[in-house]
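Before drawing any conclusions, I needed to go through one protein's amino acid sequence and its backbone structure tokens, quoted below without any editing.
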Amino acid sequence: MVYRDLQICDIDSHRMQLRVARGKGNKQRLVPISPRLLRELREYWKKYRPTHYLFPGKTPDRPYASTSIQKAVKASAQRAKIFKNVTPHVMRHSYATGLLEAGVDILTISRLLGHASFVTTMVYLHVRQPHLQSTPSPLDWLPVRQFADVIGVSIDGGLGEMSDLHVVGHAFDHRG
């Protein structure tokens, strides 16, 4: 678990990045941190004053135990009345899906997750049904005249003949 090994020196507040030194496959990567997260981390630091690990375990020289992190995530999910199986890894999937739904491209998400190939990232992505249903058709972006040209309808004096639209509609419905 990457986050349990985070150290104070891994936070670069000037560049707004967090260095993940020993990520999946023992790879190093940089991930962005939001101003809100930075504020929260500063408040956490003021309160607990960790010296080496950002989240120390029972002793300051050891990281927080993976099992303790898993228990904390499960307890938080229960308090939030989330009844699905929530694990730190599920949170990683949710992060990737949230980025995708916010419009972040797949290659950027792949880099943020530390994947060597975007194909690996595809496994992480679970797009919500309402997001799929709200996705516009590229035809909706075309001006009316250009759309009419694409589908072969004359728009002289308006949207064209209804019979033209009806015929074109049948052409698109034909599956033969």
